[in-house]
Amino acid sequence: MTEIVSAFGYSVSLTVVLIVAALVIGLALAVMFWLTVGLSIYRSIEDTRRARVRDELQEQLLEGTFDPDFDWETWVAGLSGVERDVVESLLDEYLRELDGQNVERLRELGDALGIADRSKRRLERGGEYERLYALTWLTLLERPENLHAAEFSPRTQRERAAVARLRYESNDFENPREGISLLLEGARSQFTVFGQDTLYRIGTEDPEALLDVAERNYATWPEPLLVQVLVVCRHLAAGVTTEDLSWLTAALEADNEAVREAAALALGNVGWRKDVRSDLFLDRLVADPSPRVRGAIYRMLARWSDQQALDTLLRALENEFDPRTRLLGTEALGSQRDQLPEERATALGDAWTWSHEHAKYDRTARNPGGVRG
Amino acid sequence: MHTLDHAVVQFIVGFGLFVVGFYVLINGYYLCIHVLALLELRDDVRESRWDPPFRRFASPFYPGIGIVVPAYNEAATVVESVQSLLALNYPEVEIVVVNDGSTDETLERLVENFDLEAVEAEVPIDVPAEEIHDVYRSTIYEELLVVDKDNGGKSDALNAGVWLTDMPLFCAVDSDTVIDRDALLELVGPFLERPETAVASGGVIRVANECSIEDGIVKSVTLPKTGLPGLQVMEYLRAFYSGRLGLNRIKGLILISGAFGLFRTDVVREIGGYRQDTITEDFDIVVRLHRHLMDEGRAYTVDFVPEPVAWTEVPSTRRVLGRQRRRWYRGMVETVVTNRRMLFNPTYGRVGTVVMPLFVAAETIGPLVEGIGYLVLPLAWYFGFLDVEFVLIFFLLTTGFGVFLSWFGVFSEVWSFNRYDSPSQIVRLLWYGVLENLGYRQWKTLVAWQGLLEYLKGVDTWGAMERAGFGTEEE
Amino acid sequence: MSGEILVVDDDEPIRLLVSHRLQSAGYDVRVCEDGREAADLLAEGFEPTLAVLDVMMPRLDGTRLLRMIRNSEFPVDADLPIVMLTSRGREEHVLDGFESGADDYVTKPFRAAELLARVRKCIDE
């Protein structure tokens, strides 16, 4: 009794369905098997080849790095394709670890391998990842001229960051401001941590420029980017002399609590301005509805740590009803201050006792001599 | 009598059709997920090949991570676990060991080996856990915090850690799981890319049996020699590389293994931390995160990071494995039932309307249906109600296609990270793929039914708190 | 005193670069892959002339190893000259290092010539 399966007006016997299904699955299995095993064998062969030549190549590479008479060109000319590959990956590792005259030697090796030229071509013709790999190589080799020679302009935020890094590391910018502008002007999306770090490195060299460029562009930025820039500002060296930080104080009033929080932490670092210091304004800040933002405000005040900030902070903490936010405040206080006037310390209660004791343990653990007998 | 016969026949035939149709649907879902996973892998491999020229450790932008380690009667291994955690490669780490009322010398060993001193101050915040006796700080390791509390179970211990950590992100670690040294650097990726919206990221668990792992460093990766762990390698590979990766691509990741996941501390506190009476707290918390954030209409992401990051010993005996799987099944049923509001509910977006229903169909109902299928269909054929072709098609769809999917998983692994790099290991894995579908899979349907019955009977979650250690199933 | 320099770093390129440079300057070099290996070596009685330690290492990091040495936990001279290798820009590592008793430090990426100079200086002192 072979049933007939009817669908869409066609009648087909069940046996046929079974056979078709079996064939399809059988075929799929065979394909999958051979693909998998084949790929595994191929990769295994590749890996063995590379492993075999690695040690010797590494020896020669080390020799050449420290010996200025070692002729890279001749050596490279005698390498096979696999050997070149291995040398390039070794070169990638070493370039990241060395500095000074030895790294120059390594860069000459890079030239002998023709990496910079290849990168230039990839910049012009490759997909996004190809371009990023190319920019990474040019950064390690410090060959900004290949970048300029290529017909290329960065399209995504990641590419901008990579270009900025390359030019920064190669001292290709006129001044830090140029780099900061490249990264921030017309920016439409946030950075990767690499980009953020690049902004940080360049910004550290000229914090005033960073604050200035931010001030002129912040209104056009999406919020995640604004937060990132604020976080960078938080880590800049203190003692910035920029006069106009109104954009930062404006950010303190943003709707998004993440922005307010980041602005507070940034101000903790750079904000010694009078307009921020009016009592009225500070009182308004510590009354922020978001506990997260209040916590950041407390850290900001603790960072300033002058009499006015301290008074505001202590008063606010005494009235802080959320235990965790209060704890954030006492922790910030504890890391800046060893002592508090007795009455104020008791007024802060458990939170202060806890933070104070933990700060003590932090210091003990860092001090080696005083620990063991 | 005649009409009853006829009705029964109709029913069985209908059931047969249902089973086959069901499996066509489920397999279609799995195939889609697998293909999506492959696409995701391709992007991930390209992304991981990009090594931007900066020194990560010199960058101040990496958020601090608190590692919460619940410990119950782990005197033998706790010191070693903590030492390997202290050696993790990450700029800022805090390790919170929660001694959940151990009756052995867990706490004493810790105090002795890490020079712990009890903090005099009272805990200034409310911690939703059993009573905390003492909090300890180490005089040599600044990043270590030890909490001694009354026994309350794993979720309770985790909550104590989550509430007491200072770090913006936390990671819950089973004490018998070994984390790759660079794992945190990988796992923190989503939080760096999307600091405001990332709430959780999960990493891949690999099977540690037969791998040589010393002090938290995996020296060599080998396939287990015996059957059961080997099958589980296959299973984990498929579950992670195809299941989770694929779900990730459609933003529907609903399971992050408890053995290794990174979470935003504040958001987890918002939802009240881990639930007390749940069996698989890892599954539960992610589903609750989805639910809470969607209820609030907040933009968020839950991500999966495919670079292998953690290693765990899997059960090597059928008895222990069976117990583990029944527990997982019970836990899954319980979480699904608790969160059934999300099913087919457009408020919960794609997770509610598509992912969860399919997940439930495939992982919860699937094994049950399949189990009945294995019984009913051959019997039906034997008694002449169904054609042999029909039964064979059923087996093709379950077993045959299953092998295909398993092999697809192996292919994905070879194509991407290739951690089992010798072809002979790969061939063995493929063989495990076959075995997985001939026997193991069928056994798991039995386990599913047992799990369901246990759930319906209300069998206690972990079988009382006095068991020996959390993650260990071995005796 | 064995006249050897102990180099401890979990990063292979660094180990090779540092040992190569030191060797071509005439020093004998002994290499360890992490802090625990170095600690075991020192516990057995190995006495180097100087140690170059990376800060971030698995199993036992450089700063703790440094402290252990200064606290006379090994049968070696507690005043053994030690140069730390740290990542540039992590000032707290540098301070930690000095507080823990390091004699000098070199930041990565490092200049081989500078490392050599500091090593020489520490040995001569």
Protein topology:
The complex is a heterotrimer of chains A (373), B (475) and C (125).
Chain A: E1 4-7, E2 10-13, H1 14-66, H2 72-77, H3 81-95, E3 98-99, H4 101-113, H5 115-125, H6 128-141, H7 144-149, H8 157-169, H9 176-184, H10 193-205, H11 207-217, H12 223-235, H13 246-251, H14 257-270, H15 279-286, H16 291-304, H17 307-319, H18 323-336, H19 342-348, H20 350-366
Antiparallel strand pairs in A: 1-2
Helix pairs in contact in A: 1-3, 3-4, 5-6, 6-8, 8-9, 8-10, 9-10, 9-11, 10-12, 12-14, 14-16, 15-17, 16-17, 16-18, 18-20
Chain B: H1 2-49, E1 65-71, H2 78-86, E2 93-100, H3 106-114, E3 116-118, E4 132-138, E5 144-149, H4 154-164, E6 169-173, E7 177-179, H5 183-187, H6 189-193, E8 198-207, E9 212-214, E10 217-220, H7 227-249, E11 260-264, H8 265-270, H9 281-295, E12 301-312, H10 318-338, H11 349-382, H12 388-415, H13 423-457
Helix pairs in contact in B: 1-7, 1-11, 1-12, 7-12, 7-13, 10-13, 11-12, 11-13, 12-13
Chain C: E1 4-8, H1 12-24, E2 28-32, H2 35-43, E3 50-54, H3 62-70, E4 82-87, H4 91-100, E5 104-108, E6 110-111, H5 112-124
Parallel strand pairs in C: 1-2, 1-3, 3-4, 4-5
Structure description:
In chain A, 72% of the residues lie in helices and 3% in strands. Chain A is mostly helical. Chain A has a two-stranded antiparallel sheet with strand order 1-2. In chain A, α8 runs antiparallel to α9 and α9 (176-184) packs antiparallel against α10. By secondary structure, chain B is of the alpha/beta class. In chain B, β9 (212-214) and β10 form a beta hairpin. In chain B, α1 (2-49) packs across α11 and α11 crosses α12. Chain C has helices spanning 12-24, 35-43, 62-70, 91-100, 112-124; strands at 4-8, 28-32, 50-54, 82-87, 104-108, 110-111. A five-stranded parallel sheet of chain C has the order 2-1-3-4-5, sandwiched between helices. The two termini of chain C are 15 Å apart. Chains in contact: A-B, A-C, B-C. At the A-B interface, α1, α6, α8, α10 and α12 of A face α1, α12 and α13 of B.
Shape assignment of chain A: extended
The helicity of chain A comes to over 70%
Helix content of chain C: 40-55%
Strand content of chain C: 15-25%
Gyration radius over CA of chain A: 31 Å
The CATH class of chain C, by name, is: Alpha Beta
Biggest sheet of chain C, in brief? 5 strands, parallel
Average pLDDT number of chain A: 87
CATH H-level homologous superfamily name of chain C: Response regulator
Low-confidence stretches of chain C: none
Largest interface, with counts of residues having CB < 8 Å to the other chain, equals: A-B, 69 and 61 residues
Q: Over the alpha carbons, how many angstroms does the gyration radius of chain C reach?
A: 13 Å
Distance between the termini of chain A: 92 Å
